[in-house]
Design a protein that fits this description.
The protein is of the alpha+beta class. It contains five helices and 19 strands. Strand 16 and strand 17 form a beta hairpin.
Length: about 450
């Protein structure tokens, strides 16, 4: 038995070494020769992607500006009725209810006039008494003036008689001392009577003036009493709509306590707050009109369109721009008033409601026009104020200046030129210089 181990393969001789070398050479040749038999892939051209867009060819023009705002309709004139006298209500108009319209000069209500009629009669009697007193004083003045002439003459006679008796007694010793004293007493009495009556006559003008003052006061009381009687009946000052009522028959009302509120719908007014920038740039002020106060110039009256927000298409009316009402520094708004007559408020679409107090409306106010601007759809302008323009079939981003945005339109004052094709299709981050397939939309008029 042979227990010796097998020799290794490299020990078996030159033949094995040759076989290994051949295998290595064949593998190396396969690595270099096989790629020569492989065909390269066919090459295909990728076409450039085209953006299909709509565009509009812009032309400059002049466009009207509409300044818009919202406001409530209110009656221009409103009056609160408060009795000018107190008393019990005896009569009330049958239509004195909320929302009813009462014609002008109709009696709204009556207050019991009994005590006011009595006061009028008393004042009338006072006037008559004062007039009678004045007449009596004037008559008495005439009588006393005539009587004073007699007393003056009698005083002169008594003086002559006294001087004659005194002269005879003193110079000629004719008569007696008693006769002289008697003549002196008669003369003194005549002087006293004339003096007393003269003072009375001199006081008559003063007494008459006092009586005239009293008469004037009495007449004033009579006027007031007559006014109170008239104010017991309260009438409508105009064709009035009742907006509030707090009145019942037999109710006792105090003087000055409001019981009714009436609105005059002959003229309506809408106060519309506007952005102060819009007001500054577009409102039409009459700068030629002379102004002496530090306030806004008068507004140029222009016809405005008023639309009810509940139904803008079917409920529209005309009004007129009237005035600037106020400026609010906190909100930086300028409020203007639009006036609408009753005829305008009733003129609307067939079957439509009239314009009435309380409606919340959208108002369109014509402003100064935009000149030499380009109008494009609002969506064509980005929030960065840029537009996409078709330049030789390629997309180009162009910055622009937007003069105004109104409704669905934007008005561009610079950045584009006549005949430029502005892309109006919404594009989300397109590549600059992209190839375009443009469909031109007809320009809006």
């Amino acid at each position: 038995m042979n227990d010796r181990p097998e020799p290794p393969i490299w020990a078996k001789g030159p033949l094995v070494a040759l076989i290994c070398a051949v295998i290595l050479i064949v593998g190396a040749l396969a690595v270099f020769i096989l790629p020569l038999f492989k065909k390269p892939p066919e090459q295909t051209e990728t076409p450039e992607r085209t953006l299909a867009v709509e565009a509009v060819e812009v032309r400059s023009g002049t466009y009207p500006v509409l300044i818009t705002g919202f406001g409530d309709v209110r009656a221009l004139n409103r009056v609160t009725i408060a009795p000018e006298v107190s008393g019990r209500i005896t009569t009330v108009h049958p239509d004195l209810e909320l929302g009813e319209v009462i014609p002008a000069d109709a009696v709204l209500f009556k207050i019991d006039p009994t005590r006011y009629i009595a006061a009028r009669e008393e004042a009338s009697a006072q006037v008559a008494a004062r007039e009678s007193t004045i007449a009596r004083l004037r008559t008495q003045e005439q009588l006393d003036s005539a009587r004073l002439l007699t007393l003056d003459r009698n005083e002169e006679l008594m003086r002559s008689q006294f001087e004659r008796v005194l002269n005879l007694y003193t110079n000629d010793s004719v008569g007696t001392k008693a006769a002289v004293e008697s003549a002196e007493r008669s003369y003194n009495n005549a002087v006293d009577q004339a003096a007393i009556l003269r003072r009375s006559v001199e006081l008559y003008p003063v007494q008459i003036r006092e009586a005239q003052s009293a008469l004037q006061s009495a007449r004033a009381m009579l006027v007031r009493a007559e006014y109170d009687v008239e104010r017991c009946e309260v009438r409508v000052p105009f064709d009035a709509r009742v907006t509030s009522v707090n009145l019942e028959p037999d109710q006792v009302v105090p003087m000055g306590n409001p019981v009714l509120t009436l609105a005059n719908d002959a003229v309506l007014e809408i106060q519309v707050p506007l952005d102060s920038r819009d007001a500054r740039e577009w409102l039409k002020f009459d700068h030629q009109a002379e102004s002496r106060t530090a306030w806004f110039h008068k507004l140029t009256p222009v016809e405005c369109v008023i639309r009810w927000t509940e139904s803008r298409e079917t409920h529209a009316w005309k009004g007129e721009l009237h005035r600037v009402v106020r400026f609010d520094p906190e909100t930086r708004t300028l409020s203007v008033a639009i006036r609408v007559t009753a005829e305008q408020a009733l003129t609307g679409s067939p079957g439509a409601l009239p314009l009435t107090e309380g409606m919340f409306c959208h108002v369109e106010i014509p402003g100064r026009p935009l000149e030499n601007v380009f109008r494009v759809p609002r969506t064509a302008v980005s929030f960065e104020n840029t537009v996409f323009v078709d330049v030789n079939g390629r997309l180009r981003t162009t910055p622009v200046s937007v003069a105004r945005v109104a409704g669905e339109s934007a008005y561009i004052s610079s950045g584009i030129s006549e005949g430029d094709r502005v892309i109006i299709t919404r594009l989300a981050a397109p590549l600059e210089n992209s190839l375009l397939s443009v469909a031109l939309r007809e320009k809006e008029k």
